[in-house]
Specification:
The complex is a heterodimer of chains A (287) and B (178).
Chain A (H helix, E strand, L loop, with lengths): L6 E3 L4 H11 L3 E4 L5 H6 L7 E4 L9 E4 L2 E5 L4 H5 L2 H6 L1 H7 L5 H6 L2 H7 L5 H9 L2 E6 L2 E6 H4 E3 L2 E2 L6 E8 L5 E8 L9 E9 L5 E9 L6 E2 L1 H7 L6 H12 L12 H22 L1
Parallel strand pairs in A: 1-3, 2-3
Antiparallel strand pairs in A: 4-5, 5-10, 6-7, 6-10, 8-9, 11-12, 12-13, 13-14
Helix pairs in contact in A: 10-11, 11-12
Chain B lengths: L2 H4 L5 E8 L2 E8 L4 H8 L18 E4 L2 E4 L12 E3 L13 H8 L9 H14 L7 H7 L11 H12 L13
Parallel strand pairs in B: 1-5
Antiparallel strand pairs in B: 1-2, 3-4, 3-5
The chains are: A alpha+beta (287), B alpha+beta (178).
Chain lengths: 287, 178
């Protein structure tokens, strides 16, 4: 298993990258951490004519605090995010989710931008972006734009990024005070893609009333699935088992996950309900 | 039209890497995997290639201080970088690294195919977090990305535990400290 032939480009400036994407568009793939793309090349499931390696770009790797949250450069390694005190304190859901990605050597190379652009519906980072309602910044020679999470994920391994655009930055809102988070997944083996998983963040006021709920399921639909109905049902109420069961029930009623050789749709649907309930309990305990 | 006509000729580049403290300058096709470059060009065949898609962990090496899959990186991407492979663990007189010694003592290997990957993965753990009180779960997490079909992993966990609980494990390696 060896990669097919391609023209290799390793530009050192952002404008060179954008020019290459402008010139080659659909024929080019951007190489970030390579932890999904290189296996696809090795197995020849992907055969791009041009590979644009962005690892030599100096200014795409950072984690910065902004007024309302965190901005993270697209090339920031998952391992650096995992170890960031800023991420732990300002965006604990991201910190929690990231340890579920592959294994340490995968996270040394894997990047936040790469994982989002790959857009695997069972992957952790897309679920976090979707749950928290974050957005990504993308650039092309034509300019730059922000894409909110719910418009970014279009289908399995498909985003609204055009082939001329480079994802450069991710914005995630900071967790408000009195927030608790939980990230739970069921997978065949630790480190594998999840059969089903959930990212959850609950915010409460001093009377233990839920003021905000952010929930997204992974592995049950074509994109990570934000649970708006369940969120609305939770807000304004005090946490208890009955409420959580109702939120879980509401979420899975219209859920129709596809079956594959790892699990039936029925099983995924049932597990989703259990995980929603479990994650809500965990989030409350941590709030 | 044959493939030769429609595909671009693969470019070759001269790259420089330091492996186990030794500087190498060599030519690499831009599509060569780092694992193949180490094995076929530098003849450092200690790095083993199992699955070649990032699942088995046999090809794990240390790149610029972090454990990585050498089958999921191109050799040209390592240009200017620093690598540690299994060949760099033992002292120049052949004295085994404490980790290698412990793997032997605790039966942390049988056929040995996966061992280079396990050694580098656990080396990274010891560099990162050499806490003698690490739980078995934490040790297992550190090797969770490596597959072994012989040992059942018990001996590997015991070997790592042994090195962690040594009073002052000597963890430096030949050449530059990584």
């Amino acid at each position: 298993m060896k990669p097919p032939r391609f023209a290799y480009h390793d530009p050192v400036t952002r404008s060179e990258v954008l020019s290459l994407l402008e010139d080659y568009g659909d024929e080019a793939k951007v190489l970030a951490g390579g932890q999904s793309l290189v296996p696809l090349l090795n197995m020849r499931l992907a055969q791009p004519a041009h590979l644009v390696d962005i690892n030599r770009l100096p200014d795409l790797s950072y984690i910065r605090e902004v007024d309302n949250g965190l901005v993270i450069g697209a090339l920031t390694r998952q391992r650096d995010i995992e170890r960031s005190a800023l991420v732990q304190s300002r965006c604990p859901l991201l910190a929690r989710a990231i340890s579920f990605i592959g294994h340490a050597p995968i996270r040394s190379r894997g990047t936040i931008g790469g994982s989002l652009v790959h857009a695997d519906p069972a992957a952790e980072l897309p679920a976090v972006l979707q749950a928290l309602g974050g957005h990504v910044r993308v650039e092309s020679l034509a300019g730059s734009r922000e894409i909110p999470a719910q418009e970014f994920f279009v289908g399995p391994l498909e985003t609204s990024l055009t082939s001329q655009e480079l994802l450069t930055e991710v914005w995630l809102p900071a967790a408000p005070a009195f927030s608790g988070v939980a990230f739970v997944e069921v997978s065949r083996r630790h480190g594998d893609y999840a059969l089903v998983g959930i990212a959850a963040q609950l915010t409460m006021d001093k009377d233990s009333t839920i003021t905000m709920a952010c929930l997204a399921l992974m592995g049950v639909a074509e994109t990570p699935l934000r649970l708006y109905e369940a969120e609305a049902a939770l807000v304004g109420k005090r946490p208890d088992e009955q409420l959580f069961n109702a939120a879980a029930e509401l979420s899975i009623t219209n859920l129709d996950p596809e079956a594959d050789l790892h699990a039936s749709g029925e099983y995924r649907r049932a597990v989703a309900g259990v995980l929603i309930n479990r994650a809500l309990h965990m989030a409350v305990d941590h709030a | 039209m044959s493939e030769e006509d429609i595909l671009p000729q693969q470019e070759k580049r001269v790259i420089q890497v330091r492996v186990n403290g030794i500087a190498y300058t060599a030519e690499a096709e831009t599509r060569w995997l780092l694992s193949d470059f180490l094995r076929h060009t530098l003849h450092l065949t200690g790095t083993h290639v199992g699955c070649e898609h990032g699942v088995c962990g046999a090809c794990t090496v240390i790149f610029n201080g972090a454990p990585i899959r050498s089958c999921l990186m191109f050799a040209v991407q390592a240009d200017g970088g620093e690598l540690l492979t299994v060949e760099g663990l033992a002292a120049s007189d052949g004295t085994l690294h404490p980790l290698q010694q412990a793997f032997r003592q605790y039966h942390g290997l049988q056929c040995g195919f996966c061992t280079p990957g396990f050694l580098l993965a656990t080396y990274a753990l010891l560099q990162d977090n050499p806490d003698p009180n690490l739980s078995d779960e934490e040790i297992r997490e550190a090797v969770s990305g490596n597959l072994c079909r012989c040992t059942g992993y018990q001996g590997i966990v015991a070997a790592v535990r042994h090195v962690l609980t040594q009073a002052k494990p000597e963890l430096t390696v030949r050449g530059e400290p990584v």
